[in-house]
Amino acid sequence: MYHPRLQSFGALLVLDADCRRIQTTSTNLTRLTGIERPENGQFTLACVLGKRLSQRVRRELQGQQRLPGPLVFNRSKHSNGRFQLHAYRAGEQVIVEIEPLNPLGKRRLLGTVNERLMHLAEATHQEELLDALVNAIQQLTGHERVSVCHFDSDWHGLMVAEALGKQLPSLLGQRFPASDFPVALRKSYQNYPVRLIEDVDAPPETLMPACPKTRLNGCFLRAPAPERQRYLNRLGVRGSLSLAIQGDTGIWGLVFCHSVTPHSVEPPLRDAVRTLVQMATQRMLLLRARQEARYLQRVQDSLVLSARARSEPQSPQQMLHEQAAIWMKLFRAHGVVLWMNGGAYQAGMTPPPEAISQFVLRLERAHVHSGPWCTREIAKETLTCSLDMPEQCGALAVPLPMNSTQRAWLIFFRPEQVETLYWAMQPTTSPHPASRAAPSTAWQEEVVGKSEAWQRVERLAAVDLGEDLTLAISAYEISSLNRHLEHERKALAEANQRLEQLAHFDPLTKVWNRYRIEEAINAELVAAKRYAAAFALLLFDVDNFKQINDAHGHSVGDDVLVALARLVESSLRGCDHLGRWGGEEFIVLATHSDVDAAFGLAERLRSLVAELRIEGLEQTITVSIGVAVWQADDSCKTIISRADDAMYRAKHGGRNRVEMALEPVELI
């Protein structure tokens, strides 16, 4: 028979679905609230909460899964005086959790939290941000050790930040195996991001009378499972508070607060800590977005062709010779190959030509979509394990669509990156927690046979590089045709048409590409300055586009971009223009538009996109739009930058929204 086990810092009531009858209570209800059990053994809700509060609970739970927020009530006859309750439905029952509220000094707590929030908002990089977070939490809660654990792609945890007292050893820089964070535990943190264990060794409370139907999986008061008790005991921990850090696509990591003695954390204090974690998470995502944007800009800057190169296109061999060192530095590679027309142009440390040819043949058969292909274990990857590549451990390959039937390939290679990992607990495939290593010496593992992982932003940058390289190669081919085949006018006309298409239109969506929309913006800037004709830029991208690609594949992602481009282009005036800025980003150039017209257009496009439906995709497609209206001192770079800033504010303001660019502050 199932017997729920509860922690003693709070009491529990189990009600029927109508909140009229108490079916069972935790054994500590009388001790915690001072309410004596009636002679017939049956509590009433009004007896525990009072008539007015019990009616309010009943009213607010009608048709709802849980109360919108905690409720506070007084028990003047009890020493604690004030209590807080949460109520929610669990199947055909209603669970009511009650905790005592001790005076914390709300003004002082609010002031402290606001001060810490300001420190988090001022952090300029992730390490500084996480250090500020753990120190703030330790000062608020008084735990001996506050750590931030970040999950890698294999769900191993790395302690990346720590605030430490004197009674617990440091875990900073150590790793915990994925077996410490099973799938059920991670899913639990996604639904219930805060977990408090006041005293892991305290005897648990139970329900009286026993109620076999009651399930307390989401109960905050539930006692730790025996395996979690053993785990914390091995760590030398009795009091624990943990909070989930949510990333873009799931749990990024956890905050652990540990104490060697029992440690209570009042509900207002838990709420304050959760606010700090949420603020730090948003700041971390923003810092990462800015860092990725700077990196992408560096890659784009490396692709800008000089005026001489535009008039005298370079051969692929010349381009690789001039740009290889920059590209290898940007992509942390030690070799780069440009494979086209059955041959390879190579720079740095690369495999022999025969191995490259075999590699490309296999890519052509196995990798049919337009996205990049990558691995960090060439020796174990099915596609490459039998190839002669002894000096290579990682590869990133980007297809270059030269025409409808032929692709070239840009391939980066990385060497082996031997890495020494320091484990707090030895990794194991056993379902039981591993043994804790001695505090003085962590268990070490040397990882061999792998390169550095290819980051998402590097894959995006490689695609951008490939698109520009395709254009440059096409320009060179057309130049060669113009020099050697002038007498064949038909062939020359077809080649120029191909160049025009590649130079001005995105091959996937068939709208203007980045180069063409930039030309149109510059032309509109000249007209605006000469005739004071206002115009606006709308910069937008698809919300959660990476999740679509990851869940449904790049072919569905391509379908989303094509359908979105057709919808937006068909909804514009004849004098407006649409261009693909890169990846899932697009720009609308709205001529003769003031602030009101631009905002109205953006809202109309946002609403239209939200109604778009893609075959094979159930979720709604939404966009975040940043709008910038021309100002007298604008350049192409500044007006795009203002629209980009507004779009990022729309992203971080909740997505599926429109934000106007901020007016510049005039210095007096």
Automatic annotation (TrEMBL):
<dbReference type="Pfam" id="PF00360">
    <property type="entry name" value="PHY"/>
</dbReference>
<dbReference type="Pfam" id="PF08446">
    <property type="entry name" value="PAS_2"/>
</dbReference>
<dbReference type="InterPro" id="IPR016132">
    <property type="entry name" value="Phyto_chromo_attachment"/>
</dbReference>
<dbReference type="GO" id="GO:0009881">
    <property type="term" value="F:photoreceptor activity"/>
</dbReference>
<keyword id="KW-0157">Chromophore</keyword>
<dbReference type="Pfam" id="PF01590">
    <property type="entry name" value="GAF"/>
</dbReference>
<dbReference type="GO" id="GO:0016301">
    <property type="term" value="F:kinase activity"/>
</dbReference>
<dbReference type="InterPro" id="IPR050469">
    <property type="entry name" value="Diguanylate_Cyclase"/>
</dbReference>
<dbReference type="InterPro" id="IPR043150">
    <property type="entry name" value="Phytochrome_PHY_sf"/>
</dbReference>
<keyword id="KW-0600">Photoreceptor protein</keyword>
<dbReference type="InterPro" id="IPR003018">
    <property type="entry name" value="GAF"/>
</dbReference>
<feature type="domain" description="Phytochrome chromophore attachment site">
    <location>
        <begin position="125"/>
        <end position="282"/>
    </location>
</feature>
<dbReference type="GO" id="GO:0006355">
    <property type="term" value="P:regulation of DNA-templated transcription"/>
</dbReference>
<keyword id="KW-0716">Sensory transduction</keyword>
<dbReference type="InterPro" id="IPR029016">
    <property type="entry name" value="GAF-like_dom_sf"/>
</dbReference>
<dbReference type="InterPro" id="IPR000160">
    <property type="entry name" value="GGDEF_dom"/>
</dbReference>
<dbReference type="InterPro" id="IPR035965">
    <property type="entry name" value="PAS-like_dom_sf"/>
</dbReference>
<feature type="domain" description="GGDEF">
    <location>
        <begin position="533"/>
        <end position="663"/>
    </location>
</feature>
<dbReference type="Pfam" id="PF00990">
    <property type="entry name" value="GGDEF"/>
</dbReference>
<dbReference type="GO" id="GO:0009584">
    <property type="term" value="P:detection of visible light"/>
</dbReference>
<keyword id="KW-0675">Receptor</keyword>
<dbReference type="InterPro" id="IPR013515">
    <property type="entry name" value="Phytochrome_cen-reg"/>
</dbReference>
<protein>
    <recommendedName>
        <fullName>diguanylate cyclase</fullName>
        <ecNumber>2.7.7.65</ecNumber>
    </recommendedName>
</protein>
<dbReference type="InterPro" id="IPR029787">
    <property type="entry name" value="Nucleotide_cyclase"/>
</dbReference>
<dbReference type="InterPro" id="IPR013654">
    <property type="entry name" value="PAS_2"/>
</dbReference>
<dbReference type="InterPro" id="IPR043128">
    <property type="entry name" value="Rev_trsase/Diguanyl_cyclase"/>
</dbReference>
<keyword id="KW-0418">Kinase</keyword>
<dbReference type="GO" id="GO:0052621">
    <property type="term" value="F:diguanylate cyclase activity"/>
</dbReference>
<keyword id="KW-0808">Transferase</keyword>
